[in-house]
Amino acid sequence: MSFIDTIKERAKKDKKTIVLPETMDRRVLEAASIVLKEDIANIILVGKEEEIQKNADGLDLSKAIIINPFTNDKTEDLINQLVEIRKNKGLTYEEAKKLLLEDYMYYACMLVKSGQADGVVSGACHSTANTLRPALQIIKTKPGTLLVSAFFLMVVPNCQYGSNGTFIFADSGLEQNPTPERLAAIAASSAESFQLLVQEEPVVAMLSHSTMGSAKHADVDKVVEGVKIAKEKYSQYKIDGELQLDAAIVPEVAASKAPNSDVAGKANVLVFPDLDAGNIGYKLVQRLAKAEAYGPITQGIAAPVNDLSRGCSASDIVGVVAITSVQAQATKKES
What is d(CA 15, CA 42) in angstroms, rounded to the nearest whole number? Predict the structure, then answer.
């Protein structure tokens, strides 16, 4: 069974309710129809019924819950709740109403905040900022989490490295230039995410163009300091660095370049030094190795809210909905 099929089976065992606010996008509606047909999750679509039906021509969405913000009898309560949540920022009733009626992502996050849904998947036709801003304002960060970061879950075909070709690449979607403290936090969050989703021990390599002091530069120093903090603060995980990519995943190279590391040559969680490296890295592997790339998956939000690449397919969205459901299962257990 493939990785994503395993995730789908786990999602089916304790079905969660996931909101899809981008009902103007045909791919999202195609994904919703597949999720419902395969019984992976309950789906809430936010939008006007007639517009959704028009966009969904030929698709079976009979099992979806359609919520029209303009006619839903709970909208008034959600407006008042949003005013209360944002009162310290001076949000007025009229401003809250405008947000909920004009930006369905805000409405989706309020559905999660009010307990009517378990998670949100968006980003097929909106930027990461437009997807995550409402989540951070409304749902907020998970208690005890330093930052919200993002990763891609990569499944590389015919690959003997990582966990049978499965890796987490972080941060590949959100944190531009993390400090050593934030790099360490990304490493720990990514290890936790790998454990949850892949159900195997995470082995975390903090990547650089240097391996164990082979190069000198301020960029290397940042990773070295991040490794030091991670080992002290998150000692429950196997984390090491700084490592070049080949030393991190190829046993033969690791034996030469980092013989004393218990991570080198075995890594399945790759922490990149900045967003440029992470974003370029995942897209290279996706396009050249024909890897499945699920994400950007967020970590550190109090309830799962996940972004999509704007180049995603309907099947990509289905995969992210399944992952979001499994994350929601874990969130419910923690609460």
Answer: 7
